Amino acid sequence: NRFCAASNNRTGFLCDDRATCVPASQVCDSVSDCRNGEDEQEKLCGDLPRSLPGYLVFRCSNPVYWVYADQRCNGMNDCGDCSDEMGSLAACPPCGSEWWSCSPVLYEYCSCIPRRLCRDGVQHCLSWSDEYTC
User: Which of 6, 15, 109, 122 is the Cys-Cys partner for 34 at CB 3.0 to 4.6 Å?
Assistant: First the structure.
């Protein structure tokens, strides 16, 4: 089993050295992160996502689409329909301390926007709460 927890407790892939934990989204990205390159091997990357171990994959609500497991609950709309950020499949916690909860205007976000966008003079929430409350 090569499951490991990378930075920020994100799902990762354990290298042969049993010490290096590569974040899921850096597996099969054409860059060898493991010393022996096992994160880029044909048997792992040959038929994405089928060739990946299940713990590295998150299936979007539309089963045609998938994202790497560490992209689930990262605040970004990686699936395109927010199923990686909202709903029972994703099971994400509420917005973290670095996020502001609102209905975003931009499709890039789902139910939270980064707090760094608060009071920047640009509307990011339908309610404008990012400019007046946040």
Answer: 15
pTM of the model: 0.87
Take residue 44 and report the two structure tokens written for it: 């792992």
Helix (H, G, I), strand (E, B) or coil at 8: helix
Backbone angles phi, psi at 78, to 5 degrees: -75, -30
- Compute the distance between CA of residue 87 and CA of residue 90 in angstroms, rounded to an integer: 6
- Rounded to 5°, the CA angle 109-114-116 comes to 140
Cβ-contact 130, 123 below 8 angstroms? yes
From CA 18, how far away is CA 68, in angstroms rounded?
21
Domain ranges of the chain: 1-70
Q: Where are the alpha helices (DSSP H) in the chain?
A: 42-45, 129-132
